[in-house]
Write a structure and sequence with these properties.
transmembrane; transmembrane helix; MFS_dom; two-stranded antiparallel ribbon; Tet-R_TetA/multi-R_MdtG-like; single chain; 19 helices; mainly alpha
Length: 521
């Protein structure tokens, strides 16, 4: 990989610049949580339109990540970042002043496409700027923390902006960030591009035909259960995925180099990220519902309660690379995931009046997320040759997006099944009210004064029982991930150990593609 040089002040300032769009991407995932009521009053969307307003952004990000990651490798990572920043800023203005629900859905979808250019660009530029393995791991930890902090700050920022301005102000936050990136990127960030040829358009089509139905199937299953549309979408996506893999194996310059998966550390780290993010995604989905529907907190107060877990994530993401200087990253990840099991244990024991215990438990979950997001992502990106780091970054982020979506679908559906099996519909309700009560805690809470206090307490207890069981299942999966870390990754040497380390994986095409780095300025 060539000589590793320690980064100077310019690279660290460049990291601070990259942190801004990274945090913005996380904020846009959750900022609409508190904005929907105000938005609905102005645009009057149907229930289906509301769902697409919420989901279109993450849906398109997941679908385009692999394509955009490879595109950045081909045309230049800084160039793609600047194109994406300009598109994100312009589309955010369109979203802020959307005159109709359909307009906003289209704008959110375009924001997802633009976001898919920013995510792999920022991460692959980090790997380009920080070639010293110790500094790279710390920088990736900061990068991962910024995205998670953006997600944590989203509901609070959304609530504050709606209270003082209007719902469109949530989108306008992106404009000054985009302008700053466009002005400062040419000065602070290096350019890097490979000498590979143009993208294979058929591969791009197959990747979209695989990812979009799979993501839709997972999100649909989370909202409506596993039904015919979910199964059909999964089958279509699975068939396209098989065709995509077969084509990549035949191409000399594939969209996604399947040879990356031959590395044991690369594949193991991806698996751990998938499982860890599934546990985190499901836990976050259920904990936020617990705080609002069981503990009775306002959305803004619930968002503030998420501050301590976010701080735990910060400690894990920044502290893990420092510990991994002396201890194998695989051992650090394994030990921290084992420690995070105490968080799942606290969630499995929570009652309807256990808010502090739930927050403490989720803090341990968040701690584990911070460590695997920093070190796991570093292992994935570091295992790929420099000219493939954009593809590796995109693959890492795709796995994490799928993990979160799968966690929400699986643990959310399990909690719903348990709720419906335990709750007993009280007498005196109309058929529609009885259906709402028996469907979910959200439905029961919507009945307001029509529901007696004991009936509402029963619904809360049933939901909490589902949360307990979901936490046990997630804990078992995370325990397995901890074991995978120990068995498959403990051979990795501490960061910066000159005696060895993770070697770049050869291309499946059997050739090394040289890259070109250009300093900014």
């Amino acid at each position: 990989m060539g000589k590793s040089e320690r980064a100077g002040w310019r690279e660290w300032i460049g990291l601070a610049l990259l942190a801004l769009p990274t945090m913005l991407l996380g904020l846009d995932v959750t900022a609409l949580y508190l904005v929907v009521p105000s938005l609905a009053a102005d645009l009057d969307p149907t229930a289906t339109e509301t769902l697409w307003i919420m989901d279109a952004y993450g849906f398109l990000i997941a679908g385009f990540l692999i394509t955009m990651g490879t595109l950045g490798d081909r045309i230049g990572r800084r160039r793609l970042l600047m194109i994406g920043a300009a598109a994100f800023g312009a589309t955010s203005v369109l979203a802020a002043f959307a005159p109709s629900a359909l307009w906003l859905i289209v704008a959110r979808a375009l924001l997802g496409v633009a976001g898919a250019t920013l995510m792999p660009s920022t991460l692959s530029l980090v790997s380009t700027m920080f070639t010293d393995v110790r500094q790279r791991a710390l920088a990736i930890g900061v990068w991962a923390t910024m995205f998670a902090l953006g997600m944590a700050a989203g509901p609070v920022a959304g609530g504050a902006l709606v209270a003082d301005l209007w719902w469109g102000a949530v989108f306008l936050v992106a404009v000054p960030v985009a302008v700053l990136v466009l002005v400062a990127a040419p000065v602070l960030l290096p350019e890097y591009r490979s000498s590979a040829g143009p993208l294979d358009l058929l591969s791009v089509g197959l990747s979209l035909a695989a990812m979009l139905p799979i993501v839709y199937a997972v999100k649909h299953a989370a909202a409506h259960g596993v039904d015919a549309p979910a199964v059909f979408a999964a089958l279509v996506g699975g068939g396209a995925a098989v065709a995509f893999v077969r084509r990549q194996l035949r191409l000399s310059e594939p969209l996604l180099d399947m040879g990356l998966f031959t590395g044991r550390a690369f594949s193991a780290a991806l698996s751990v990220l998938l499982v860890g993010l599934a546990g985190f995604g499901g836990a976050m989905y259920l904990v936020t519902q617990y705080l609002q529907l069981v503990a009775g907190l306002s959305p803004l107060t619930a968002g503030l309660w998420m501050g301590p877990p976010a701080l735990a994530m910060l400690v894990g993401a920044v502290g893990a690379p420092l510990v991994a200087v002396r201890v194998s990253p695989g051992v650090v990840m394994s030990a921290t995931l084992a420690l995070s099991l105490s968080g799942y244990a606290l969630l499995s024991l929570a009652g309807a009046d256990s808010t502090p215990g739930v927050i403490a438990g989720f803090a341990f979950v968040y701690l584990g997320l911070g460590v695997i997001a920093a070190l796991g992502t570093d292992i994935v990106v570091g295992a790929a040759p420099p000219e493939k780091s954009g593809s590796a970054a995109a693959l890492s982020e795709t796995v994490q997006e799928l993990g979160i979506a799968a966690g929400v679908a699986l643990l959310g559906s399990l909690t719903t099944v348990i709720y419906r099996s335990r709750v007993e519909t009280p007498s005196g309700l109309s058929p529609s009210e009885a259906d709402a009560y028996g469907d979910s805690l959200l439905g029961a809470s919507s009945l307001g004064n029509q529901l007696s206090a004991p009936a509402l307490d029963q619904a809360r207890a049933a939901f909490t029982g589902g949360l307990n069981t979901a936490a046990v299942l997630a804990g078992l999966a995370v325990a397995a991930a901890s074991l995978v870390c120990f068995t498959a990754l403990r051979h990795l040497r501490p960061l910066g150990d000159t005696a060895g380390g993770t070697e770049p994986i050869a291309s499946s095409a059997g050739t090394a593609t040289t890259g070109e780095r250009e300093d900014g300025g």
